[in-house]
Structures are given as C-alpha cells and as structure tokens.
Amino acid sequence: MTNGNHDGAGNGDSGQESVPSRQRRRFPGISSRAYEHPADRSALVALRKLTGFDTVFKALSGLLPERSLRLLFLSDSVRVSDAQFAHLNDMLRDACYILDLEKVPPMYVTQDPKPNAMCIGLDEPIIVVTTGLVELLDEEEMRAVVGHEVGHALSGHSVYRTILLFLTNLALKVAWIPLGNVAIMAIVTALREWFRKSELSADRAGLLVGQDLQASMRGLMKIAGGNHLHEMNVDAFLEQAEEYEAGGDLRDSVLKILNVLPRSHPFTTVRAAELKKWAATRDYQRVMDGHYPRRQEDKDTSVTDSFRQSASSYADNVRNSKDPLMKLVTDIAGGAGDLGGKLRGRFTGQGSGGSSDRSGEGGGDGTGSGNGNGNGSSSGPPDGSGGK
Length: 388
Description:
Elements: E1 16-19, E2 22-25, H1 38-49, H2 53-59, H3 66-76, E3 78-79, H4 86-98, E4 107-110, E5 117-120, E6 126-130, H5 131-136, H6 139-155, H7 157-173, H8 180-210, H9 213-225, H10 234-246, H11 250-260, H12 268-279, H13 282-288, H14 303-320, H15 324-333, H16 339-348
Helix pairs in contact: 1-8, 1-14, 4-6, 6-8, 6-9, 7-8, 8-12, 9-12, 10-12, 15-16
C-alpha cells in the first residue's frame, strides 16, 4: 500500500486483519473480477484489451467536465481527512486496505439532503457522498457504502461513469439536431444497461468490505424507505422484490422495462435480492476463503470466456425468471405450442393459473421456473436516476 496509515494493519500473512469494531478478512491482490457481475466483467475485460483504449479516453479528458468537478468539490464541499469526518476517513482507508487498492482516492462530503454517493474521474477517481447519506446510515451500513465506492474505483467504473455523465448532458444539448440525439441516446442507453450491472458489482464489493450482509440489506432498505428502521423488515422488503418480478402480466413486464431504461441504477429491492442471492453462492464463499482471481492475472483473461460467462448469466436469468415476459421467451425458445393463446393469457393476466385444458387456451404454461432472481446497485450521478 502506498498509504501506510491503515487502521487495519496488523496480522501479517494470517489472512485476518484488525479493523475498527471487529475482525475482517483482507484480500491481498484481489482482482475486481472476483466480485464483478458477469455482464459488467465481460464489458470491462473487452475494453481493457482494446489497444489504445486508455489513450483515447485520456484524450477526451479535455472535453469532459472532470477538472471542473474536482474544483467544484474542492471549493464547495468538505474533504474527508483525519481532521474532517475522521470516521469516514477511517472507513475509506480500511476499505482500500481490505480490497488492496494501492492509492486511497480523495473523498468529499457535499451538502445535499438526498442520500447519494458516486465515484467519478478519468485520471484518478474521487468519491463523493452527500450529507443525506451520512446522516441516514449507521457505521456498518456506511462501511458497506464506502466499500461499494472503492469497488467502483478498483474496477475502473469511475472512467465510464464520467463518460456517461458527459454523454447524458451532451444528449440534452444536441436534442435539436435531427438524429443526433437518437444516436447519442442509443449509446447512453447501452451505457446505462452496463452500469446497472456494474452497480451490482459494487454492491458485492461493499459486502466484501463490510462483511455484514444484514448491514448491507439495512442500508439499501433505508435508501428506499428513509430512517425508519423500526418500521421496516428485511424479509418483507425482499418479498417486494419477489412480487415485483413475478407479479402482473405482459403489460407489467413492458412497463418494468420502460421504467428502468432511464435509470443508471437498478431498483433498490432488486439490488437487495441480488446481493443476498450472491452472498449465498459458492463464488462468494470461495472469495471469503481466500480463493479468488488476482490482479496480476487480469492481462491473461480471455475476452471470449468472459463473454461466454456473460451470455450464460443472461440465459440463466431468463430461464429462472418468474417475470411473465421472460417466461414467455422461455416458452418460445422451448418450442411451446399455441403462442396465440399464451399471449392472450399473459396480456390479460390469466395465463399463470393452472388449467386442466391441455390445449393451453388461457391456461398455465406448464413451464417449471426456478427461483426468481432480481436483476438489479450505489453511486449515483446527480441525474436523479438513483441513489447510492
């Protein structure tokens, strides 16, 4: 580490490091591939393999508002340090130590009642958290958020988030140009889809830093419902994600797509469900046991393998989803008959119940679905599209 003032330093090669409050495992040399969502990972691997990619984006830095943003936060926000927001500074250094991020990025607290955080920057990432978020979360919940932002920095998401901010603003400025806005918004839409997956990656990084699933759940729940924890319940909150995915008919499925398209973040209940699901996987347990990909191996990562894993992940989501539209896609792919009847049933909400009529007219599709999985992240840009 370039910064040796980490409070977590202490136990040598034992794999367990002492950080405030309790013991947490450290992950020396961990690659961001260890926690990245497959769709996020495949895009990042491909971009890193592009010759001259970094040079091109650095050349864009003169066009992007990065320098202006840095000066803005420096002049009109509070920089976290040993002298200011010292508890956040400790969390930041701990998070960088646990994920083995060599250079601790600067962090700012900015006055804004809306709970939010972001990690931006082309040359060097900076982390910004709002006063609304600091006041909303307790220590362990905030630790997960700081870990989330450090995960963004380790993955290099800050570069693409800055590009997304720039293109979103540019789209507004060229809206009057025929087809100009359409072309840019197509790129913005694709970037938003990728970034929604990157938010899932960062949620996982936050869990690796905090190592407290319940704290991560509480934080997401508070972002959705405010500081009324005594009025909320994690299990009931997760049931909302299940109802959101499985409920309704094809009309609701289309509305879900339209609702999420303009957002840079997945919906909060969906994020919570996705994080809990990942925490129960063997992949998570292997990372916690010290078996994870190392950063030094990133250059040897196969783009083809990464895209294959991404495709497999999307296929699993479709196959296991309880969403009416996804179930219909599965039926079509499986060669199910009487699509006209199924479409009528799904659009009217009458296609999910069982039926003894083998013809399939208005009856159930007979297709067994696995456990539903929410497809859903926290560092939001100041575009109103998502918190944390």
